[in-house]
Specification:
heterodimer; A: 449 residues; alpha/beta; 7-stranded mixed β-sheet; 6-stranded mixed β-sheet; 11 helices; 21% helix; B: mainly alpha; 18 helices
Chain lengths: 449, 380
């Protein structure tokens, strides 16, 4: 049964440099990188040594807390270096790539003949399990648990977000196969949310309940959709997978190969010809953005400008990201920059700028904080961008003081940091809401599990 | 402006960590960030941020107060001198009386804020930009300046800094100043002589509408004068028209809560209407038409500029409806029933400031209950 999701609270931020719908390929790099910090809460245990040869799909490390969860190489080649930081923490693993990839063959499967444990086993062995995350907490799912439902959001509303129809085009069969795989993992439903405004192959996908989503960002956040369709209660688990990752999982079962190739958008005002590219998981930022940027002081973000991570040249594109955003750094002073109705090149939810007169303008925003951090003063602004039925300010305050019972009561299980990204944005006191929620979730994992 | 920036950057290291005047860093920062929005970039969380900050929010409120301030200044002259003078004569008569009050309010208040910032080592908060202008606007024009000074000191230290500064206070600081003045210097804060400048010396009657009603007489002020503000009263409160201009600006910019304003209006109208129905022979306030209640005293000024203070109001959306409604109800209730206070707005807002967290508590409880119910349904 499908249910339409209409989101009223939120804010769509229009930025300059949205990717054009054309596709090129990023040329093959010499080095690919796996960064364990892409996988939240995972402490890696290495299974390979420097100098060892790996194929695509060979295990590189597994999770310390659960050795079933394995992480595999995105390319074939030789382990070049394991870079460690303080206390010998593994920061990244660099792999020198062969000229052409060779794949570990997991064997093509006839899905109808497989049982749920067999499906799980293949996902775990191939490293594809990492694509499956759970709510609460937004961490890699525990394979020993049963989710009450699986959610896939195929509608991205974040600023500059990649168009999912475009990134999936040509992979319709793989996507369907991926859905069939996932539906083996739950007794409940697999939910697929789609953009209500466009007709796409996604509306024809079989074996899912389709929800037509409309409204402002964060309508496309899977957490928002879960809260509208089937909210997470204490003790329950819901799994979420991103659309391209569904296709990768599908391809694994169709061909027996874990092919971590994905289509990403490169966008933002500092990108010269924003468009889509095919890349292999683990490609380094410097190789991806080479010769594509305006030569200024830029900030490169893996992910969208609200939730992504700032990255440097040697970092890989984030494991879960399908977008690289490049924005100008904003380390400049602005003379009397707080004067109402001046400085109209900035975008605001409030009408304290004349920019409210041009709602369809695309803005070139930089990374300036546009103020200083303050105690929470203005009320109501957080609620305006929070479509989930919680009290965001009260939850943030409960989290700040670490009151676990209150956090639980106020709905910490229903949110992920990304759901608070717009609060980061609109807060006139410049509250770091995502960071607070992230720490709150850490506390819950530690204390409640 | 590059020259100014260069000069600031030259002396800035002295005030930074390890600098000679490190202790005065917060004060320096206060001035610097007044001139320039700093070059801080996002370090975590969202990489882009809304252009709005607290300085901008507070300036919007200050701008919204300007019509009431300008009219109030003019009205000081008009009330004293009567008909037949030019705009500038009225305005300059008022100006030389109100300017010292504004200077003292900002000077003393910001002075204390800076001292606190230096000793506590936190940055200077913008909250006082609004409070500093609100305080003179809700005082009688004849108030001696030393009383104003003491009230400001009390309001800032006890009303705000004692709780941790802007964002932490329970009571609206401007109203704390007024309440302090009222209870400490009652003769200078009430009666018929304080609302018009030099009224005793110049022999001008300075009775307010509510004062007249309190003495069980029907006022002679026309509805037009009430709306336009041609009557004695606190400096900023008399002109409903000017306050409405400010309100429109606040609502349009999205800074103040329309829910609080609307629900206060509903609450006050309802209460006034009930009193009209009851009627009384000994208390003229019962018979004062309910809609005229909204035009006199500090009601309009209170709901637009005081009740909507986000720090001391209820914080939840539902809570704001309840909070505003009760302010309206209590304002009229105190006005009509309480013989010692001719105006109830200040008390109503302060009372609801105290109860705002309680209102929020019950609103949030209902959300928690909903969540628990959902869980039970799943378990069943």
């Amino acid at each position: 049964m499908s249910k339409d999701i209409k989101i009223k609270n939120g804010l769509t931020i229009k930025l300059k440099g949205k990717a054009q719908q054309k596709l090129s390929s990023v040329s093959r790099s010499n080095t690919y990188v796996i960064k364990p910090s892409n996988f939240y809460g995972i402490i890696p245990k290495m299974t390979v040594k420097v100098g060892e040869k790996v194929q695509v799909g060979d295990v590189v490390f597994y999770a310390k807390h659960n050795d079933q969860i394995k992480f595999t190489s995105p390319v074939s080649g030789v382990i070049k270096e394991i870079i460690r930081g303080a206390k010998r923490k593994i920061l990244s693993i660099e792999i020198t790539a062969d000229v052409k990839d060779t794949y570990k063959d997991f064997g093509a499967k006839e899905l109808n003949n497989l049982t749920a444990p067999q499906v799980k086993e293949l996902l775990l062995q191939s490293g594809c399990w990492a694509y499956i995350k759970q709510r609460p907490y937004n961490i890699i799912a525990n394979p020993d648990e049963q989710p009450k439902a699986i959610f896939i959001s195929a509608y991205a509303t974040a600023p500059l977000a990649a168009n999912i129809d475009f990134t999936l085009s040509g992979r319709e069969n793989e996507f369907q196969a991926g859905i069939d795989v996932l539906s083996k993992l739950t007794e409940g439903k697999v939910h697929l949310s789609v953009n209500s405004k466009i007709s796409s192959f996604l509306n024809e996908v079989q074996g899912v309940s389709i929800h037509k989503v409309s409204g402002k960002h964060p309508a496309g956040n899977v957490g928002v959709q879960i809260s509208k369709v089937d909210p997470v209660n204490v003790g329950e688990r819901v799994w979420v997978v991103q659309p391209q990752d569904v296709a990768i999982i599908g391809k694994l079962f169709l061909t027996g190969k874990n092919d971590p190739t994905k289509i990403i958008a490169i966008g933002g005002s500092q990108v010269e010809d924003p468009q889509y590219y095919t890349v292999i998981q683990g490609a380094q930022i410097k190789d991806i953005v080479k010769d594509k940027l305006v030569d200024e002081k830029n900030r490169i973000i893996s992910g969208n400008p609200l939730t992504g991570d700032a990255v440097v040249a040697n970092d890989p594109i984030g494991f879960y990201d399908d977008l690289i955003t490049v924005l100008p750094e904003g380390d400049h002073y602005s003379f009397f920059g707080w004067m109402p109705f001046f400085g109209n090149d900035k975008f605001s939810m409030s009408r304290t700028f004349f920019s409210f007169l041009t709602p369809n303008k695309e803005y070139k925003l930089d990374t300036n904080l546009n103020g200083e951090d303050r105690a929470m003063v203005v009320t109501g602004e957080m609620e305006k961008v929070m479509p989930i039925d919680i009290y965001p300010m009260q939850l943030l305050k409960a989290t700040l003081v670490g009151d676990i019972e209150k956090m639980e009561n106020l709905g910490i299980y229903e949110v992920a940091p990304e759901d608070f990204a717009l609060i980061d944005y609109v807060s006139s006191s410049k509250i770091e809401a995502q960071d607070i929620i992230r720490q709150g979730i850490d506390l819950m994992i530690k204390e409640v599990g | 402006m590059k020259f100014l920036r260069k000069q600031i950057d030259k002396v800035k290291p002295l005030f930074e960590k390890g600098g000679k005047y490190e202790k005065f860093g917060p004060a320096f920062g206060g001035f610097e960030t007044f001139l320039y929005v700093p070059n801080h970039t996002t370090k975590k969380g969202a990489h882009i941020r809304d252009g709005v900050d607290l300085k901008r929010v507070m300036m919007i409120v200050v701008l919204a107060l300007l019509p009431a301030l300008i009219f109030g200044t003019w009205n000081i002259g008009y009330q004293n001198m009567g008909e037949g003078h030019s705009f500038w004569e009225y305005f300059s008569f008022g100006g030389i009386r109100i300017l010292p009050m504004i200077i003292i309010s900002y000077g003393v208040g910001l002075g204390i804020e800076f001292v606190y910032a230096i000793f506590r080592g936190h940055s200077v908060n913008e909250g006082y930009l609004v409070t500093g202008l609100l305080i003179p606007l809700i005082m009688p024009i004849d108030m001696p300046l030393w009383m104003l000074t003491v009230s400001v000191v009390f309001a800032v230290i006890i009303g705000k800094e004692a709780f941790g500064g802007t964002g932490m206070n329970i009571l609206n600081p401007a109203l704390v100043a007024r309440a302090f003045a009222l209870f400490s210097y009652a003769p200078f804060m009430s009666g018929n002589t304080v609302w018009v400048a030099d009224s005793v010396a110049d022999g001008v009657s300075g009775e307010t509408v509510l004062g007249t009603l309190g003495a069980n007489n029907m006022p002679s002020t026309s509805v037009y004068d009430m709306f336009m503000g041609f009557m004695p009263g606190s400096i900023g409160e008399t002109s409903v028209l000017m306050i409405l201009l400010g309100a429109a600006f606040l609502l349009f910019t999205g800074i103040a809560s329309w829910r609080i304003m609307l629900s206060s209006l509903i609450g006050a109208s309802l209460m006034g209407f009930i009193f009209n129905l009851i009627g009384s022979e000994t208390n003229a306030l019962f018979n004062f038409p309910w809609w005229q209640h909204l035009l006199v005293g500090g009601f309009a000024f209170g709901i637009v500029f005081m009740a909507t203070d986000p720090v001391t109001a209820a914080q939840t959306t539902k809570g704001k409806w309840i909070y505003g409604f009760l302010i309206g109800v209590f304002a009229i209730l105190i006005r009509v029933i309480n013989p010692t206070l001719p105006e109830g707005m200040m008390m109503a807002i302060l009372l609801m400031n105290v109860f705002a967290p309680t209102i929020d508590h019950y609103v949030i409880e209902s959300n928690i209950k909903k969540r628990k119910k959902r869980l039970q349904k799943v378990k069943a």
